[in-house]
Amino acid sequence: MRVLIYLLMIITATALSLGVGLVVGFELQDASRWLLVATAATTPFIVMGPAVIGAFAGYWDHRSSPESRRYLGWWFAAVIAVEVVAAVFIVLATLSARAPLWVPVVLVLGAAVLLAVARPLGALFRRTERPIPEDLGPSVPDGSVVRRKLVVIGVTFVIAAAVATIGAALLTALGGGRVEALTQTVLLAGQLTFTATAMATLFVALPFSRALRDAGGRDIGRLRRFAKVVLRGKDLPLDGTDARGAVRYAQILPLVLQFQLGFTGLLYVAIVFQCLSYVVRGDLGLLPEVFLAAIVVVLALVFPLTLRRIRRARRYVDRHVHAGDRGSGPDASAV
Length: 335
Fold this sequence. Notes:
Elements: H1 2-27, H2 33-42, H3 45-59, H4 66-97, H5 102-126, H6 143-174, H7 179-204, H8 206-215, H9 220-232, H10 240-281, H11 287-320, H12 323-326, H13 330-333
Helix pairs in contact: 1-3, 2-4, 3-4, 3-5, 4-5, 6-7, 7-10, 8-10, 9-10, 10-11
């Protein structure tokens, strides 16, 4: 049920973002170039900003701790700031393009409504989650569980590739076998295949992400404290419960990060296929090449950083794995 609600949220947010983009593209196209670019760059956030707030409220209770309240408050303030900037650009672009009055009214009021309902709807979604079990079970899923997840990902890739190949063959036949049409269909097939596989990777890893949240009592402030201790080596005081939670966090985190790397890699490959499609068609000028270069830079930064975090978490487990049994803090367990 929660997965269906989550999918519905993604579909709704995507549809609203597309609608906002169409309004900007059709109604504000006569605005000055810099205003049009600024508006197009900021208006997606009037939908995605509330979506982020709703997602945070759906997974974290801001009342769980002062740290959680402070951290989520920062995010809420940042989203409001971006929404205000987007609203200013919308109004200025409307005046520049001499667009109808309903354009800023619909976009700005719509953003306000989304922001107003985001947190209550997220909180309602959070209440559908099962309570944290008293017995959390093994800290790390055994090899058979991970292998089953990998099998699901592999089967998804094979099925998606087969379906995309059949669809590409049909499109090529309808296109008369032209080289350009063949190239486009192959790129589209690759994009759909890797996108489907990335989504499968995301969904099969959800139980691991839930286990990581449970390690911190579903308190984002507490998990951030664990991250400071485990990943950054901060010498923070931990009582017996937090010491055990930090060890469990460090045991689960490498698995979560490995699946995140898989998801990111697959999704970026799909985006590369899409950018190559733009390059072949000659659309958007140099923007696809710039975006491809940006992907390479992001991956070059993210992958080594993530691998370093995995190694740090494993070293923490090696040093403190007995802390949970003795109920002592990290310093005591290192003696």
